[in-house]
Amino acid sequence: MSISEASDEAGTTLLNGIVDGSVDFRGKPSVRSTSGGWRSSGFIIGAEVAEKFAYLGIASNLITYFTGPLQMSTASAASNVNLWLGTAAFLPLIWGSIADSFLGRYRTILLTSSLYIFGLGLLTFSATIPSLCKDQETLVSCVSQLKVTIFFSALYLIAIGEGGFKVCIRAFGADQFDEQDPKESKAKSVYFNWSYFARSAGILTTRLISNYVQENLSWALGFGIPCLSMMLSLFLFLLGTNTYRFSTGGEGRKHTNPFVRIGRVFVAAAKNRQQTSSETFLLVPTESSKTFRFLDRAAITCDSREVEEAKAVLSLVPIWMCCLVFGIVYAQSPTFFTKQGSTMDRSISSSLLVPAATLQCFINLSILVFIPVYDRLFVPMARSITHRPAGITTLQRISTGIFLSVPSLVIAALVEMKRLKTAQDHGLVDSPEATVPMSVCWLIPQYVLYGVSDVFTMVGLQEFFYGQVPVELRSLGLSLYLSVVGIGNFLSSFMVAVIEKATSQSGQVSWFANNLNQAHLDYFYWLLACLSSVAFVSFVCFAKSYIYRNPK
């Protein structure tokens, strides 16, 4: 085809409003005026909000259920919460690969939603199984083994469903915007901000409703409400089917597993390591990236696009590793932050006590306030200085969030030191059940700063990992972003286990003792603040040398 013919064809496509690289629900080329854009993403955002209501309705107060009805120790409960959250955030790597390889994002969402709903139903049933002791005091655990088995089976079934749902629905939502159209390309960046805003609204609502119901009415009802919310999520998603765009890069055709493709490139490069650069020069396209040139040797046996995929993923590894400490920090809100608040004065009136997990609402409130400020004030101001459409680069955004996590942890450590001193001054060191006469409002600053840090880091990571991988690997790209949280939770669980063992030897009191008035959460927060500082410096160094890629 000649250049003039190609130009005429592109002009005809643009004139007809056909979106290149996508089809509608009937399998016909997508028409811009009747598919995709905000009309489609509205249904997707609604489904995400309902799903987040369900997920955080379980996750935000899980440590209270572990230490209460399931009678676990504080350290054991925190480790179990971290392991579960880590699994839910790590599974997107598997589901993203499945979606990109053969199942497609739409069908993966339907499958995982069904597993999700079944798991929530099973979890609700487990909460109705009565205690064995019937309110009699005993030194033996009153928890039925059947209850524990069903509960954990349901919990990890939810993790399997949630892991696939969130990675695919976020990629599917971004697929509704055409990167080749200037207006839609700009709208996609806005979409990432406002979808995060909407999810935060859903999380805020569930922390106000579900946590109160669970602690004051019934755990079964508190688990049942999220189950209904997930049913609503699936309904909203299906409602928008007629308006969706389905990417031909990920829907409707089979692909080799992305892990297999990338692995094949590394194996081929290793086999051809004796080849000189001059021998592989003619096999490498002129537009090939100049980084990781040792992988160009794989072009002898692999497709050049596969080589570029491997380079794109490899370039993300240093950034990904530097963000893992933020993943550890991210794991503290539903665990030790919540336990910290449970020992303090949470009364609003003589009859109303605020659930400790509800304090996490301040994270979402700060997100809801700051995202419009970021989008309407910060971005235009930054744009006038940098002349970048988004104001600052995604890596600058992420580094700002990592930096803000440090003062959040410093404040958490200082507040915990004050709480311990207050408990000591009032003779409550040996009274774990007593309320420390210190207002829970002291925790608000660390939650607020934590939320602002989220706006920079989590939204930045989502946009960065989605945009810096080839189109065919975008589910995998978002999986890498979510795995930061997953691996962070695993590392947090590992750290808690190691520190618990190290600090409880020789008759010493553990940092995570069941009696928090004797424990030292402040030491743990100081440790995390130091690690975050190191991670920030490392991130900045790698970000300076990173070369942005065009995923097309």
Summarize the structure.
It is built from 19 helices and 5 strands. The protein is mainly α.
Describe this structure in words.
The chain is mainly α and 552 residues long. The protein has helices at residues 3-16, 37-59, 62-67, 74-90, 92-103, 105-127, 145-174, 182-216, 219-239, 258-271, 277-281, 304-322, 324-330, 333-342, 361-386, 394-425, 444-467, 474-503, 521-545, and strands spanning 18-23, 29-31, 246-247, 344-345, 436-439. The strands form two sheets. It has a three-stranded antiparallel sheet with strand order 2-1-3. The chain has a two-stranded parallel sheet with strand order 4-5. The longest helix is centred in the middle third of the chain and has 35 residues, at 182-216. It starts with a helix and ends in a 7-residue tail after the last helix. Mean pLDDT is 80; it is low at 1-15, 136-140 and 250-254.
User: Helical proportion?
Assistant: 55-70%
| Average pLDDT | 80
Could you name the ranges where pLDDT drops below 50 across 5 or more consecutive residues? 1-15, 136-140, 250-254
Oligomer: single chain
Radius of gyration: 25 Å
Distance between the termini: 21 Å
Morphology? globular
Let me know the number of strands: 5
Largest sheet: 3 strands, antiparallel
Number of helices: 19
What is the percentage of strand-forming residues? under 5%
The arrangement of helices and strands along the chain is: HEEHHHHHHHHEHHHHHEHHEHHH
Strands side by side in the biggest sheet:
2-1-3
SS-derived structural category = mainly alpha
